[in-house]
Design a protein that fits this description.
4 domains; five-stranded antiparallel sheet; OB fold (Dihydrolipoamide Acetyltransferase, E2P); alpha+beta; elongated; five-stranded mixed β-barrel; 18 strands; 339 residues
Length: 339
């Protein structure tokens, strides 16, 4: 009997250890299955979080550059490919290198080769349009270059082609719009339709705004007797108009010099910087009379100190009359030689 009891006990012990081994194996198998399931869930979640769609603009990093294509990592399950030619500007060498971070446009997701087709040029174009639309909404200036003459105005390159109407080129539009071609300046966008590729800009509105700001500053110091510096805008037969900073004044030919002036163009030219004194200011009508000769001493005030009766002088005949000739003996001083 004792031997039989020992055998039974040994058999129970073996069953116990066998059951423990089975439970341990089952537990490890379940843990491995749970781990595999968790990894699958994480992997699927990562793919879901990196989902991209056609037409999106995404950021990427250049992985490789070969003779035809540029491979870009955009954080998707497969890399994207861009034709190398899209990185060449104006027929020059492609400007791209491994490691560059760029924005790209998604053209297709998973072609027949399983690759993502991207476009660098369309991303840049989209960025330009966003800038143009922002400038239109906020009224901020945008810089561009006038490139060509078109019907009714000029063509402007602001990243996209824009139309500048002839009436919006300058505050006082003149003849010959061709003279503006090649100029780079700021514009304000007055019309923008991305769907139709239609952008209209104005240089005039921006110039008027700047002129009003300058005018408000000039008016703070404008009064009769004040000396200002300005720019000659245009010359006429009777004088010249001078821009004092947002507001124009007339410099009459009789106030250009103490001596005789044959024509205002003999004294000043458009674009000249001149110093003038305000002779009269009509605030109600915005009329300003300017003088240049008043900044110099009147030669007649000291003529007695230089010329005496009986003294001989040399002069230049400036005009002839029925009763004699007028001779200029020094700038601003003329004498009559009677017949």
């Amino acid at each position: 009997m004792p031997l039989l009891g020992a055998g039974v006990a040994r058999a129970h012990q073996e069953d116990f250890f066998f059951n423990m081994l089975e439970e341990t194996a089952d537990r490890e198998t379940n843990e491995q299955q749970e781990d595999a399931q968790s990894f699958q869930e994480i992997f699927e979640a990562s793919l879901q979080s990196s989902t991209i769609e056609r037409g999106e603009i995404v950021k990427g990093r250049v992985l490789a550059v070969d003779e035809e294509n540029v491979t870009v990592d955009i954080g998707y399950k497969s890399e994207g490919v861009i034709p190398l030619a899209e990185f060449a500007e104006s027929g020059g060498e492609p400007q791209v290198a491994v490691g560059d971070e760029i924005e790209v446009y998604v053209e297709s997701v998973g072609d027949e080769n399983g690759q993502v087709q991207l476009s660098y040029s369309r991303a840049r174009q989209s960025a330009v349009w966003r800038q143009v639309e922002s400038a239109y909404r906020e009224g901020t200036p945008i810089r561009g270059t006038i490139v060509d003459r078109v019907k009714g105005g000029l063509s402007v390159d602001i990243g996209v082609t824009a139309f500048l109407p002839g009436s919006h080129v300058d505050i006082r539009p003149g003849k010959g719009l061709d003279r503006y071609i090649g100029e780079t300046c700021d514009f304000v966008v007055i019309k923008c339709n991305r769907a139709r590729g239609n952008v209209v800009v104005s240089r005039k509105l921006l110039l008027e705004k700047e002129r009003e700001e300058l005018k408000s500053q000039t008016l703070k110091i404008l009064e009769e007797g004040v000396i200002l510096e300005g720019t000659v805008k245009n010359v006429t037969d009777y004088g010249a108009f001078v821009d004092l900073g947002g507001i124009d004044g007339l410099l009459h030919v009789t106030d250009m010099a103490w001596g005789r002036v044959a024509h205002p163009s003999k004294v000043v030219s458009p674009g000249d910087r001149v110093k003038v004194v305000v002779l009269k200011y009509d605030a109600e009508n915005d009329r300003i009379s300017l003088g240049m000769k008043q900044l110099q001493e009147d030669p007649w005030l000291t003529i007695a100190e230089r010329l005496f009766p009986g003294s001989r002088v040399h002069g230049r005949v400036v005009s002839l009359t029925d009763y004699g000739a007028f001779v200029e003996i020094e700038p601003g001083v003329e004498g009559l030689v009677h017949v």
